[in-house]
Amino acid sequence: MSDFLIVGGGVIGMMTALQLADAGQRVTLIERGRCGREASWAGGGIVSPLYPWRYSAPVSALSRWSEGAYPTLSLRLEEETGISPEYRQRGLLYLNVDDPERALPWARERGVPLERVGRDVVAAKEPEANPEGDQALWMPTLGSVRNPRLGQALRARLEAMAQVTLVEQCSVTGFIIHAGRVEGVTTEQGRLSAGSVIVCGGAWAAELLAKVGVGLPVRPVKGQMIAYQTPPGLVSRVVLKDGRYVIPRADGLLLVGSTLEEADFDKSTDAEARASLMASAADIVPALAHYSVAHHWAGLRPGSPDGVPFIGAVPGWENLYVNAGHYRNGLVLAPASTHLLVDLLLGRTPLIDPSPYRLEGRSSLARSLA
């Protein structure tokens, strides 16, 4: 029997498993598909909230810690697996920002390098970008990762660890409960027992916890993205304008995103979203109007009411925990949110105050099982 059983093999679930295994725990990670193939694969990989000064203190606390963790994590995974997550710290250009008077004081208060720049600086940094005015901001420290490669590297590392068991292509159908204790899960392939169970199911977390009468306000929010294959160097940095962004990869792939759609669990793509994303791409980098879309896909974010994730024990049930509801910032917040939960699980001093992320008062409990 494992010490911990994690339900959900996205970046949150895999980083949780990695940290628990690093601490000497035996871990089983169960995923209904293949690890790292849902929202963790579908996002853009920017290691910061898009407009960080617009977020609440709980999100900012997790974000700041996570941003500092990614360089070391990426180097570690490449060394251990041979798979590079392609962490790039080339900065971010914010074009057409309508609230610099809010952004600049936020940056000064936190010691974050952020400055207002003119068209000349934008042209020097990204000659192909279209600033349309002088309301640009430059953040030189922002980084990004190639999230599909990050998922591959995490999975490869876990697969090589003797104390980790990966169970893929296996859906959880219920929980094993005895005297108010959650002792494991039932699956299509049988029962799996563990000392504690952690739900890291992303957009599916609410469905999972509903099986024990817990109403978690997490819902799927669809995001569609497109990508162009361009010559390497056409764009070198992340460029953000009017809520849409262009993210470059080292091989010239340029990601453009993304839509925000309330469409339940529908992951289909459509021509209207494609046209909207293409228009945004050409507005940010006019040269992209001369390229064809190479890829178009959709993923499901785990939306929560205030964008603050739920991290910690599930009230009313012993040995049941959750880490879900990161909305647009799952990859951004993953290192800190998983570290925080592992601190709580192992009785360590938490790296940040856990109280804003607790479920008490933020979820509906309707315990009906015994």
TrEMBL record:
Keywords, sorted A to Z: Oxidoreductase, Thiamine biosynthesis
GO function terms (MF aspect): glycine oxidase activity
EC number: 1.4.3.19
SUPFAM superfamilies documented for this protein: FAD-linked reductases, C-terminal domain (SSF54373), FAD/NAD(P)-binding domain (SSF51905)
Name under which the protein is recorded: Glycine oxidase ThiO
Keyword set includes Zinc-finger: no
Taxonomic source organism: Halomonas dongshanensis
Keyword Oxidoreductase attributed: yes
FAD dependent oxidoreductase domain: residues covered: 3-344
Pathway field: Cofactor biosynthesis; thiamine diphosphate biosynthesis
